Amino acid sequence: MSRALSGQPANEQPPAPPVLPEGPWVTLTSASNTAFAGPWGVSFTANLTPDKETGLGKWSERNFIDTIRTGRHLGRGREILPPMPIGVYRQMTDNDLASIFAYLQTLPPISNKVPEPLPPASAAAH
Ligand code: HEM
């Protein structure tokens, strides 16, 4: 619980990307529930705590709303990968998103630099 919402722990070796099974399987989830392998490669849950260097500490409410609405980091950067349910969350009202952001900013800041996602080739090469 002390790590709550701080994302894939930087000091833990992420699990080796699994070989994805044939057939209509989409996602494999690590036991920590912070790493997800699928056709997009491997994504790691973000640090949503208000740490200034590794979390959302320097984000404004606008940055947060833009990220969720566009599905891109800060509204203009890299596309946010699955399984983050952007297609669902982007339909929330500004008021809902502002409330979620306000809550996240009340969390204790946790310094944790989440690793970059791994491209699909890495998942397949394992
Ligand atoms: C209200 C609930 C949620 C909020 C407020 C939230 C917020 C965010 C934000 C703001 C980012 C982007 C961070 C950035 O661009 O730096 C993100 C990324 C991510 N989220 Fe969520 N999220 C929520 C629920 C979920 C759920 C339910 C899942 C998984 C089932 C999930 C998985 C992920 C993953 C894997 C990433 C990293 C994607 C990437 O690196 O491209 N999130 N989340």
Automatic annotation (TrEMBL):
GO molecular function: electron transfer activity; heme binding
Ranges in a coiled coil: none
InterPro entries recorded: Cyt_c-like_dom_sf, Cytochrome_c-type_DH
Chain segments carrying region Disordered: 1-25
Domain of life: Bacteria
Pro residues bias locations: 12-21
Transmembrane segments: none
PANTHER family with a match to the protein in the record: BLL4482 PROTEIN, BLL4482 PROTEIN-RELATED
Name the UniProt record assigns to this protein: Cytochrome c
Organism field: Permianibacter aggregans
